């Protein structure tokens, strides 16, 4: 999706309802930022951890029932570490309890145009009926960037001070590997698989890509990188910035129900003060009832990531066992914002199906155990469990707001484009490796198509991928193979019939692409 315009540059099964896992925390944080800007709470507000929040499985910050902690640290823990206990503590604080906060989440989702999303809890642990889509998560990501640019920088942090611990980002591998990447959120449970809403900016383009159903962190990141690359290639260099309209709930002047705010000190610190951040209002009394639009009949129930839901029954568009691949690319602008997340405490892993964006066919996600607090990306809250049998990729890009300068981050240009992109997966350290995707050359399938010679293996692989996407009808079942020669790397599609090869070549030639039929 091009963030500047909200145009979807590429999508596949973008409206398939799947388990969002910890991508859910994007909405939890969105509502938190909204409450702060309304003056209902502040970053310095002291939250008393409920027994419900303290009982959440990993990933965790390590909160204890009755413990008091500033809201800023819970925000950091939820955004950077993806701590389930921190997200649940925020939900109980702003909504009264899990069900109350879920109602607020669903109201906001409706206001943002997330038509196929239903939330049941604040952290994304598997719960029957807790579903979303790649398109909806991309829309949410775009709103986070444009509606709260002063906090967006939080999602690019590799580490953060969560008050009781220093936490590491679950998305640091992708942030370090992909050029221009600056967010946004990872997610993992056995039923969901490895999910990621990513954004990257290069020049005046910003792309956002969402993937659901990855089989591993590496596979998911590789797919997201491919999508982001595709997005940057398709997004126009210049276009008019058309930021998303703020939801009606944000335009409402009345306050949203929430905890009472006291104190007159500045509610930002060096770690959280955004550049050009909006002024925070302090209230001495509890804010009025929530002004948000009529809540859709939403329910909220306790969900444990440790609980693996093989299938979500009686759901509105139930998520298929085999999750189809959905991808969308969107452009977003960088925003500066910071928040910290507390240290996660070891707890049971959550299980959620994996959905990933990319060019892979939907596969059924398999349960994986959640990783503990100090695990690497996609561990605890997101749950890094054994790779699912087959990846279910759902990508979606979310538009992003103009970038703001913050914490030393570069200010993104207004003309940013959000597109699903990821740095190409690092090739295995194998020299002269032949990359073959699918299949057999038996049964008369000993013909093929050559689409050119390239100076590097990566360039050849990339050309094969782009060509396969462009001509999926004729090349969808062909194998992609890179052969190293004396003068370069040959990009070939093999395992085809003579008729199939000739047809594919004819169509590529019609597109002004180089093509040569290869015979046995």
From TrEMBL:
Domain Peptidase S11 D-alanyl-D-alanine carboxypeptidase A N-terminal: start-end pairs: 1-214
Residue stretches spanning the membrane: none
SUPFAM superfamilies according to UniProt: beta-lactamase/transpeptidase-like
Region described as Disordered: 283-303
Residue ranges, compositional bias (Low complexity): 283-297
Catalytic-site annotation from UniProt: 22, 25, 82
Full protein name: D-alanyl-D-alanine carboxypeptidase
Family matches, as Pfam families: Peptidase_S11
PANTHER family in the cross-refs: D-ALANYL-D-ALANINE CARBOXYPEPTIDASE, TRAFFICKING PROTEIN PARTICLE COMPLEX SUBUNIT 12
Entry-linked InterPro entries: Beta-lactam/transpept-like (IPR012338), Peptidase_S11 (IPR018044), Peptidase_S11_N (IPR001967)
Gene3D superfamilies named among the record's database cross-references: DD-peptidase/beta-lactamase superfamily
One function term, GO molecular function aspect: serine-type D-Ala-D-Ala carboxypeptidase activity
Binding site for substrate: 185
Keyword presence, Transmembrane: no
GO biological process: cell wall organization; peptidoglycan biosynthetic process; proteolysis; regulation of cell shape
Record's keyword terms, sorted: Carboxypeptidase, Cell shape, Cell wall biogenesis/degradation, Hydrolase, Peptidoglycan synthesis, Protease, Signal
Family statement drawn from the similarity comment of this UniProt entry: Belongs to the peptidase S11 family.
Organism listed in the record: Paenirhodobacter huangdaonensis
């Amino acid at each position: 999706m091009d963030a500047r315009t909200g145009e979807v540059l590429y999508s596949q099964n973008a409206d398939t309802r799947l388990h969002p896992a910890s991508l859910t925390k994007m909405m939890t944080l969105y509502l938190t930022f909204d409450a702060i800007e309304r003056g209902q709470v502040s970053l310095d507000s002291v939250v008393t951890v409920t027994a419900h929040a303290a009982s959440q499985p990993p990933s965790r910050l390590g909160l204890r029932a009755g413990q008091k902690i500033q809201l800023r640290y819970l925000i950091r823990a939820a955004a950077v570490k993806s701590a389930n206990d921190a997200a649940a503590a925020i939900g109980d604080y702003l909504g009264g309890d899990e069900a109350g906060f879920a109602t607020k989440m669903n109201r906001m989702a409706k206001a943002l145009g997330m038509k196929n999303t239903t939330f049941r809890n604040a952290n994304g642990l598997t719960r029957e009926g807790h579903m979303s889509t790649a398109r909806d998560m991309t829309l949410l990501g775009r709103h986070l960037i444009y509606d709260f640019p002063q906090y967006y920088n939080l999602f690019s942090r590799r580490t953060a001070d969560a008050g009781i611990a220093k936490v590491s980002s679950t998305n640091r591998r992708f942030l370090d590997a992909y050029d221009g990447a600056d967010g946004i959120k990872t997610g993992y449970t056995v039923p969901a698989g490895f999910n990621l809403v990513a954004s990257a900016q290069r020049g005046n383009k910003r792309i956002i890509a969402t993937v659901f159903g990855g089989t591993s962190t590496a596979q998911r990141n590789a797919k997201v990188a491919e999508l982001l690359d595709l997005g940057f290639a398709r997004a126009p260099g210049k276009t008019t910035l058309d930021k998303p309209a703020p939801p009606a709930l944000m335009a409402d002047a009345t306050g949203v129900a929430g905890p009472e705010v006291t104190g007159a000190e500045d509610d930002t610190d060096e770690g959280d003060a955004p550049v050009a951040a909006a002024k925070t209002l302090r209230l001495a009394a509890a804010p009025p009832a929530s002004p948000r639009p009529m809540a859709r009949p939403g329910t909220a129930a306790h969900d444990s990531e440790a609980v693996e839901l093989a299938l979500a029954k009686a759901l509105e568009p139930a998520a298929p066992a085999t999750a189809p691949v959905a991808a969308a690319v969107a452009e977003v602008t960088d925003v500066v914002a910071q928040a910290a997340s507390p240290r996660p405490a070891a707890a049971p892993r959550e299980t959620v199906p994996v959905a990933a964006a990319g060019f892979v066919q939907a596969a059924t996600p398999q349960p994986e155990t959640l990783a503990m607090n100090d695990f690497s990306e996609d561990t605890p809250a997101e749950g890094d469990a054994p790779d699912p049998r087959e990846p279910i990729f759902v990508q979606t890009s979310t538009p992003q707001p103009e970038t703001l300068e913050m914490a030393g981050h570069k200010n993104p240009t207004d003309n940013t484009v959000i597109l699903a992109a990821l740095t190409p997966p690092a090739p295995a350290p194998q020299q002269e490796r032949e990359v073959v995707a699918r299949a057999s050359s038996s049964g008369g399938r000993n013909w093929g198509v050559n689409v050119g010679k390239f100076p590097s293996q990566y360039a050849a692989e990339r050309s094969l991928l782009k060509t396969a996407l462009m001509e999926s009808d004729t090349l969808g079942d062909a194998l992609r193979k890179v052969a190293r020669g004396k003068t370069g790397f040959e990009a070939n599609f093999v395992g085809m019939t003579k008729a199939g090869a000739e047809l594919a070549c004819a169509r590529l030639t019609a597109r002004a692409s180089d093509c040569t039929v290869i015979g046995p």
